[in-house]
């Protein structure tokens, strides 16, 4: 059996079939992988202890995510931060540390936005989060880095603040005393 355009050389026919099979396979793999692609911000999200933070993540190309399974997990410990499936938030497997503090922002789901809000940030929230998405046939994930910084004197005890204030006042007093002593020495020399 030859090729449709009249070539009947057996080795050319088998090469053409092999090439055609490879091309079809590559096309199918490409189509399968293009079905679901999750994209993170590509840079760390920064926030301060006590604030709220939004971890951005979206589907590319844009696609309705309301019927997908979206799971945010901590990368280092692989535990669930937030779980959403078929229009519902599932809290059964959520880490206790995030109970009542997470929300998948639903306004953007129809446009493929999978953003997660974490309220009342704690120092322990610092680290990598993985946004995972699945629809039964395809799966993808993206990593989002959250950098949580403490505000100045956030964890300071009252005695630490008092000690710092006393040390600053002592340094100012010594500096002022040295200045006045030198000034008096110059006046006496004149």
Topology (SSEs and partners):
Layout: H1 10-34, E1 38-39, E2 45-48, E3 53-55, E4 58-59, E5 69-74, E6 80-85, E7 88-89, E8 102-104, E9 116-118, E10 127-134, E11 139-149, H2 158-189
Parallel strand pairs: 2-11
Antiparallel strand pairs: 1-4, 3-9, 5-6, 5-10, 6-7, 8-9, 10-11
Transmembrane segments: 159-181
Protein name: MOG protein
Pfam family, one: V-set
Give me a quick take on this structure:
The chain is an alpha+beta fold and 190 residues long. It has 2 helices and 11 strands.
Describe this structure in words.
By secondary structure, this protein is of the alpha+beta class. The protein has a domain at 38-149: Immunoglobulin-like. The protein contains two helices and eleven strands, in the order H-E-E-E-E-E-E-E-E-E-E-E-H. It has a six-stranded mixed sheet with strand order 2-11-10-5-6-7, with no helix packed on it. It has a three-stranded antiparallel sheet with strand order 3-9-8, with no helix packed on it. A two-stranded antiparallel sheet has the order 1-4. Strand 5 and strand 6 form a beta hairpin. It is elongated and about 90 Å long. It starts with 9 loop residues before the first helix and ends with a helix.
